[in-house]
Specification:
By secondary structure, the chain is α/β, with parallel strands linked by helices. It has five domains: 257 residues, no CATH class; 131 residues, no CATH class; 157 residues, no CATH class; 144 residues, 2-Layer Sandwich (Nucleotidyltransferase, domain 5), CATH 3.30.420; 224 residues, Rossmann fold (3-Layer(aba) Sandwich). It is 60% helix and 6% strand. It is built from 53 helices and 17 strands. The strands form four sheets. The protein has a seven-stranded mixed beta sheet, sandwiched between helices. α24 packs antiparallel against α25. The longest helix has 25 residues. The radius of gyration is 42 Å and the shape is elongated. It comes from Actinomadura harenae. This is CHAT domain-containing protein.
Length: 1199
């Protein structure tokens, strides 16, 4: 029996004889046992040569229980209590409270005046250790000196609560430094103290470089390491790890390469069970990614590192977090990298999502448990990382649900990131990419507009950053390419140039070996080519093609690297485009062959394959014998579209297929039916847009396609299908604006009360530019924007009977009934053609009739082309324009309106037909009511033989309109207020006062309030008048722009506004003018569109959409002096009982008649009418004005 066993046995025996319960002797025995256990376990007495007593948990518990019962002022007892608590916590898995209890006991003893000199050193040694380790999680506390791999995990990712930890650790370092220098302790204990103090310094050092220096110094402490158990196993690997980390942080590729080679040699020699193999794998992986951009090596190292660690290892969660980070960045940075056959990125992306989900869940759980702001920020960063992986999976798989999840995750993370967090630019850019991807998939330009705002902010943040970051630079390049494509789609030349310049900047900044650099350079060259083709710059086209070819030559045709295959596809596609332009069959054949090789692989995502198949189809379509193959490719591409039949590419694919089918003309090839499907797909795209500006982008090519499909139908003897095509392809934006006022009602009819309520609660207004963070928080809810709600509504309605009101135009019988209701005789579509044009005529019987019009043959339209050119110069060369106008009026009669009139006269009971014209394409610029022919010594105009009105489409005519035919009351007359840059109209006040005095004595006058009897004519005042007045006459400035939705009436300024009543504002408020029976726009260009003619988007048609029953508008810049004269005659006829269409016809006939009677004109207007330099009979003086609306005559009306 040992001396310890004998003495502890005596104390235990005596304790057993004591009566139950506390007592002085029991307490005294407990303290004696504790002192004995402490001295025996740790050999605290220098004169004690007996072997140490094994420190079992039961023995430690007994000693601690005994010492805890003593007096608080006994330093010897406190030292031993602290020692036993320290040992139990670290050796016997004691409770966490042992750490604080040990520190309390040791700290009290250390400052006690009666502490024995022999006890003070052990007290300071263990107190120093405890003050450091109290701030580490249990898993990171070393249980023996040799486990310094855990220190590496601390450096790699553990975050201290510095406010609490630094003071304690600093004091602990001071205690340990003293003991490390004390001769009292043997060499192993001094080494332990010295190394522990170094670890403390590592923990509180904030500068990474100095931390690495400290680590290297620690690992260079040969004397200290010699006395530590197990150092020979991990020292070389840990030293290599620290040196590699130091070299990587230095930024020197040479130093890093040398350190990486050394570390890799050691890594290869380590056994799979060696924990340092995992740590080296992590650092080698980071170095491969950050310094050498070797993505394959990075993933190889990191994946192996994660597999080497068990889930309970303190480094496991850190390693998994790093792997998730690098896997995501790798997938994002090089999504086209080479992979094993059949993998095609699927497992890699799914693994990234899996890792990111686990890491994000851990981070959220930790933040919830600790309540730490730093942990909350880290959780937000991990959510952002998850958003990146979900975005990549959405890019791969598509689908609205995948999009919503990716968007909602980023939406949740971004507001929680600290304002200066380094991930914010990437988060902004990522959300922009999600939105841009939605635009590309579904065609919603609201997403593209929002994406542009996010992209711009992300770019500015990147460029304002303190240092260059290749990942963010790459992201800027990708964002710039997306912005450029959207700008090109919108035909925004300046924005396109800016985005292209930003892409060039990114390409110039990225390292030459960066995976994205060559691809972005290819995109840049493609943008150069796109611009050159648009500008018809042959030299620039060749230069861009050469640049693309050079980029493509770097990759062999059979490369297994998908991103290089993508570059090859891009090059081949561009080469095909050039071959088609130059009609170069060998180049076309070679390009198609390259594309077919690419199509045979499984490299590309669904969206990429769609584009590839579409390009292949175009190429085969141009090749002899390639027609059948082209059709097969197009049908394969169409099969990849979303189940709802939507998708941004649907109109293009369907229209190309229709063209191919028309060329083949097989027995089952329904080119017309396919063309109608293409038009419906295009209409669906317009209906998806938020606001008319975006709708115009989608409708830009619809009119041309509609005219082509209608021509096919007419050639096939199917005039009803020709009507369907023309109605589908015209006035899409107007149709969208008017249809969606009833969307909630339609959704309820479809059984979707939920969507109806969402629609009412959140009107899908246009997304206006604003601060991106505010956009994120206010315009996006769970990842859904207004455009998403729009798309879901359109999809639901397209599958229900309500689709008839959305996608099905009125058929000829319905149009005939509409003519009957309106009192009109014929609806006439005018269509140009190659050998001849067409008049498609529908009478009240609803039977369509096709009349060939030889005057509309392509070779005979020179007067129209000349007029289009002269119209652009009207303001500077009015004489040339007037001459071109005269030639246009002469051209419009023979073979065109002569034929139309001949067909329509039999339809009218009185021989003077009422005709509603729907001219297509540029024919919409022609004043057809002024078509003329010689009649003796004068010219006779068609308006003398027919009442001519115009309509955007038959649908607009067929829509129910409530028209009151009682005498007009509550008239409002508006004169130019004279605000703004445009000169005041000299005779606007004269015009409105003459009308008031003669016809509207009770009328309200708006304009310049300085004029007697006038109120301020602001936008608000005029819009209020349009909501209540039955007749409104505006004599003010009108402006028409290439972007029709910007066209406006110029009114009075108010509250900092520019005084413009914009066309877009009218479309955004359909039905707001239903009280107004007649609106007279005595202003310039109020019925003119100079682009996208078949949309017929003018101020006149917009007011019709807003509910005005009938509108008088103008086709060109009208004369301020002659217009008041004609307007007086118009209102004169109106007040004699004529309906507006008839009143306009009479007033124009009066103007065209040189023998007109001027007797009834007021004096001011008489003087204007008799000025010799302004002949009233010139069509330039009167033919600008048109009638839109319901041309219904009134009973008792006479000439």
């Amino acid at each position: 029996m040992t001396e310890f066993a004998r003495r502890i046995g005596v104390l235990r025996a005596e304790e057993a004889t004591l009566p139950p319960g506390p007592g002085p002797r029991r307490t005294e025995i407990g303290v004696l046992k504790g002192m004995l256990i402490a001295d025996g376990c740790l050999r605290l007495r220098p004169d004690d040569d007996a072997p140490a007593v094994p420190a079992s948990r039961e023995l430690l518990d007994e000693g601690i229980a005994g010492l805890s019962g003593g007096t608080s002022d006994d330093p010897a007892r406190l030292v031993r209590l602290g020692v036993l608590l320290f040992v139990r916590l670290r050796v016997a898995e004691g409770p966490e409270r042992d750490a604080e209890d040990a520190i309390t006991a040791l700290r009290t003893a250390a400052v006690h005046p009666a502490v024995a000199p022999v006890d003070l050193p052990i007290c300071c040694l263990l107190l120093g250790q405890s003050l450091i380790t109290r701030h580490l999680p249990k898993a990171l506390r070393a249980t023996r000196p040799g486990e310094l791999d855990r220190v590496v995990s601390i450096m790699a990712g553990f975050q201290l609560d510095r406010a609490r930890a630094v003071p304690d650790i600093t004091r602990g370092i001071a205690f340990l430094d003293d003991e490390a220098a004390s001769d009292l302790w043997p060499a192993p204990v001094r080494a332990w103290a010295r190394m522990s103090a170094q670890v403390g310094r590592l923990l509180i050092e904030e500068d990474l470089g100095r931390r690495l220096d400290l680590m290297i110094n620690l690992l260079s402490d040969t004397e200290g390491l010699t006395h530590m158990a197990g150092t020979e196993d991990w020292l070389p690997a840990l030293t290599a790890w620290a040196e590699l980390r130091k070299a990587r942080e230095s930024g020197s590729p040479e130093m890093t390469r040398e350190a990486a080679d050394k570390a890799d040699d050691i890594f290869g020699a380590l056994t799979p069970s060696d924990v340092m193999r995992a740590l080296l794998a992590q650092e080698l992986g980071r170095t491969s990614l950050d310094t050498f951009h070797d993505l394959e090596e990075a993933l190889r190292y990191l994946t192996e590192g994660e597999e080497l660690l068990s889930a309970d290892h303190p480094y496991f969660s850190i390693m998994r977090s790093i792997l998730a980070d690098v896997t995501t960045i790798t997938e994002f940075t090089d999504p086209w990298r080479s992979r094993p056959p059949g993998e095609v990125g699927v497992p890699a992306v799914d693994r990234a999502v899996e890792l990111a989900r686990e890491v994000a869940a851990d981070a959220r759980r930790k933040a919830s448990e600790t309540g730490s702001a730093e942990d909350a920020s880290d959780a937000a960063r991990q959510e952002f990382l998850l958003g990146m992986t979900l975005f990549l999976r959405w890019i791969r798989d598509g689908g609205d649900e995948a999009h919503r999840e990716a968007a909602s995750v980023v939406h949740a993370a971004l507001p929680r990131l600290p304002g200066d967090d380094r991930t914010i630019p990437a988060a902004m850019g990522l959300f922009g990419a999600v939105l841009s991807g939605t635009h590309l998939a579904h065609g919603s330009l609201q997403h593209a507009q929002a994406a542009r705002t996010f992209f711009t902010t992300a770019r500015d943040l990147v460029r304002a950053g303190p240092e260059e970051n290749t990942g963010l630079t790459m992201m800027c390049g990708v964002m710039a390419s997306m912005r450029a494509q959207e700008a090109w789609e919108r035909q925004e030349t300046e924005e396109f140039a800016k985005a292209r310049d930003e892409l060039a900047w990114a390409v110039g900044v990225l390292p030459a070996d960066h995976p994205w650099r060559r691809f972005l350079a290819g995109i840049l060259a493609l943008l150069r080519l796109q611009h050159a083709i648009g500008a018809n710059d042959t030299n620039e086209v060749r230069s861009a093609l050469a640049e693309l070819a050079e980029l493509g030559d770097a990759a062999p045709p059979d490369t297994d690297r998908p991103w290089l295959q993508g570059l090859n596809v891009m090059t081949a596609s561009v080469s095909l485009m050039y071959g088609l332009l130059e009609d170069d069959e060998p180049q076309i054949a070679a390009s198609v062959e390259a594309l077919e090789r690419a199509a045979a692989t499984e490299t590309f995502s669904q969206a990429q394959r769609l584009a590839l198949l579409s390009t292949l189809a175009q190429g085969q379509l141009a090749r002899p014998g390639g027609l059948g193959t082209s059709i097969a490719y197009l049908r394969e591409a169409l099969a990849l579209l979303p189940p709802d039949g939507g998708g941004a590419m649907a109109p293009s694919l369907l229209s190309t297929l229709a063209e191919a089918l028309r060329r083949r003309r097989g027995p089952d090839d329904d080119a017309v039916g396919t063309g109608l499907l293409a038009l419906r797909a295009q209409l669906r795209g317009v209906l998806l847009q938020i606001g008319p500006e975006d709708g115009m982008v989608g409708a830009r090519t619809a009119g041309r396609l509609a005219t082509q499909v209608a021509a096919w139908a007419l050639e096939d003897g199917e005039p009803a299908r020709a009507v369907e095509a023309l109605e589908l392809g015209r006035g899409m934006v107007l149709h969208a604006a008017t249809t969606f006022t009833s969307t909630p009602e339609l959704l309820r009819e479809a059984g979707r009360e939920d969507l109806a309520e969402q629609w009412c609660a959140r009107r899908p207004d246009r997304l206006l530019p604003a601060d991106p963070m505010n956009l994120l928080l206010t315009a996006v809810t769970g990842g859904e924007m207004a455009a998403d709600l729009h798309r879901r509504a359109v999809t639901v309605l397209a599958e229900r009977p309500a689709a008839d009101r959305l996608f099905t135009p009125p058929v000829p019988p319905e149009l005939g009934a509409a003519l009957e209701r309106a009192g009109a005789d014929a609806l006439v579509y005018l269509c140009p053609g190659t050998e001849h044009g067409w008049a498609l005529i529908i009478g009240r019987n609803g039977e369509p009739l096709a009349e060939p019009l030889p005057g509309l043959a392509a070779a005979d339209t020179e007067p129209l082309r000349r007029y289009v050119e002269a119209r652009e110069r009207q303001a500077v060369d009015r004489a040339d324009w007037a001459a071109a106008l005269g030639d246009l009026c002469d051209w419009a009669w023979p073979g065109i309106m002569a034929n139309v009139l001949a067909r329509c006269v039999p339809l009218a009971a009185d021989g003077r037909p009422r005709i509603v014209l729907v001219p297509t394409g540029e024919l919409g610029l022609v004043c057809w009511h002024a078509a003329r022919r010689p009649a003796g010594e004068r010219l006779r105009y068609i308006c003398e033989d027919a009442v001519i009105s115009y309509a955007a489409s038959g649908r607009q005519l067929a829509d129910p309109v409530t028209v009151a035919h009682a005498a007009r009351t509550a008239a409002v007359l508006v004169a130019d207020p004279g605000d703004g840059d445009a000169p005041r109209l000299a005779f606007a006040v004269t015009e409105t006062e003459a009308l008031r005095d003669a016809f509207y004595q009770d009328g309200r006058m708006l304009g310049d309030e300085a004029e007697p009897g006038f109120e301020r004519g602001t936008v608000a005042a005029v819009r209020a008048a349009l909501r209540t007045a039955t007749m409104v006459h505006l004599a003010t400035h009108g402006v028409a722009y290439a972007t029709p939705v910007d066209s406006a009436l110029m009114l009075g300024h108010e509250d900092g506004t520019d005084g413009r009543l914009r066309l877009a504002d009218l479309l955004d408020d359909p039905g707001s003018c239903r009280a107004c029976e007649l609106l007279v726009l005595s202003a310039c260009v109020t019925d003119l569109t100079s682009a996208v003619y078949d949309e017929v988007l003018t101020l006149s048609t917009a007011f019709r959409s807003a509910g005005v029953a009938e509108v008088i508008g103008s086709r060109w810049l009208v004369d301020d002096a002659t217009t008041p004269v004609m307007m007086y005659v118009f209102h004169h006829e109106l007040n004699r009982g004529a309906d507006p269409a008839e009143a306009l016809r009479r007033s124009q006939c009066w103007m065209a008649d040189p023998g007109r009677d001027l007797a009834e004109l007021p004096n001011d207007l008489y003087h204007l009418a008799t000025e010799p330099d302004r002949p009233l009979e010139d069509p330039a003086s009167w033919a600008a004005f048109t009638h839109q609306g319901v041309p219904a005559s009134r009973p008792g009306c006479s000439e």
